[in-house]
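Hi team,

As requested, here is the filled-out complex form for the adenosine-5'-triphosphate run. I kept the field names the same as last time so the parser does not choke. Let me know if anything looks off before we queue the next batch.

— J.
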Amino acid sequence: MIELASITKKYRVGKQYVEAISGVDLTVRKGEIFGIIGHSGAGKSTLLRCVNLLERPTSGSVKVAGVELTKLNDRQLQQERRKIGMIFQHFNLLSMATVRENIAFPLKLAKLPKAEVASRVNELLQLVGLEQHGDKYPAQLSGGQKQRVGIARALANNPDVLLCDEATSALDPQTTSAILALLLDINQKLGITILLITHEMQVIRSICDRVAVIDGGTIVEMGDVIDVFLKPQHPVTQDFVDEAAESQSDMRQLLSARQGRIFRVHYVGHVTYEPVLYNAVKASGVKVAILQGTISRMKQTPYGELIVEFIGESAEIDGILAQLRQDGLNVEELT
Ligand SMILES: Nc1ncnc2c1ncn2[C@@H]1O[C@H](COP(=O)(O)OP(=O)(O)OP(=O)(O)O)[C@@H](O)[C@H]1O
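And here is what came back:
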């Protein structure tokens, strides 16, 4: 649905050029939710804005639904942009217009007849759960409600793609969860492809299928969310994973005080809720202590990550490890 090839974006700052994006290739499949995560200044906004040419790349190709956007004239580009909705961190609503008028705005630009505008706006209000708020002004709404208006407006012209620029960064955790649930619902109900940028792991973990990690204007790691976050390869990815877990130094302190052999065990899918650890140790004389653990879900897939200590004969412990690996668990020794 989205194909970026060799995208480079340079900004001119005085007499110098700053390269914000350097040779990025990225493909987003139809119907998926794809997240781009990176620290501040990594190039997320610039890259996202290259997709609908709000920023024109210095070089490279931008295809959306098979159409090369960089080659279009202004009128053609305006037409193609109707297929690409966008929502923003600070909502970008018209403050002097009501919720209805904000949502109707892109429909009026597309010259839809008045009666159709009214009925489409009603549909959209219902989709985002704002039926009761159509005649209010943005200042009378909460942050979460404002973002719902932003989402309704972005969906007005039935786009194929929704671009989300830090859509939940200005919201509290509870409202963030509600907006993410709405995005997931829209993706599943309407089949819209979503490309989002964020600096929050939680956003990626709860709704994305695939993720790219961006640093210094290049993509340093990309893949299925589960693979990237359970086996991070690049230091920046590792940073994001560590931010969400206990700090490295706390972990080192914990490990240094232990006597046994220590392992990180992770597992994905149905095995998460099975007594695999118990089954592997029950017939042996080995004792097991869980030092740290998370059992959670990435999108709809359950996963677990445990730090465990095995106390006992080394040969017996090796046997347990073999059993765990045979059961499909990923085991890595930390001692
Ligand atoms: N209009 C501009 N003129 C000059 N430099 C710019 C411009 N926009 C962005 N940059 C530079 O490009 C780099 C990438 O910026 P960008 O806003 O894309 O990063 P980001 O990852 O979205 O950061 P944040 O999360 O803080 O918004 C930064 O070094 C930034 O200073």
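Two things worth flagging: The pocket of adenosine-5'-triphosphate is lined by residues 11, 13, 18, 20, 38, 40-46, 199 (CB under 6 Å). Residues 31-56+72-234 form a domain with the Rossmann fold fold (CATH 3.40.50.300).

Thanks,
J.
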